Amino acid sequence: MIDDLYSSDVLRLAANIPHIGRLETPDASVRRVSRLCGSELELDLVLKDDVVTDHAIRVKACALGQASAAVLSANLRGARLTEIEQARDDLRAMLKSDGPVPEGRFAELAALEGARDYPARHQSVMLAFEAAVEAVTTATETTTRLTG
To answer: Which tens digit of pLDDT belongs to each residue from 123-146?
Structure first.
C-alpha cells in the first residue's frame, strides 16, 4: 500500500521541482502552510493579460506535496486562472470523492492518485494549487486596482 503512495512517479516528480527560488518583482506572492502536517509553500508569480508569464516556488513538504508542487511548477507558465482552478477542483475530487484524474496541462497529477486513501495527506497535496489560485487572484485584483 505504501508503494502506491510513494510510487516511483511521485518520487521522480518530488526530486525534480522546476523554477525553485524567488522572483525579484512578482505581481503576487503567497505563502501557505498546512496546519495538519506543517508543509510550507511560497509562490511568486507574474501575470500578463491574465496569463502566468513567470513564477518561482519554494517548497518544504513531504514527497506528495513536493510532487504536486512539481506538476504545478512545470506547467504554470502560460496558464490562466480558470485552468488552475479546474486542476485544483479536479485534484480535490480525485482525492476526496473518487473523481477522475485531472486532464490537460496538469495531467501528471494522476501520479498522486494513491494519496486518495490517505486523507491526512490531502492538505499537503492540495497546497500548491490552493496557493496558485490565491496568487493569480491576488495579482488580478492588484492589476485591476492599478489600471482600473
So the answer is: 999 999 999 999 999 999 876 666
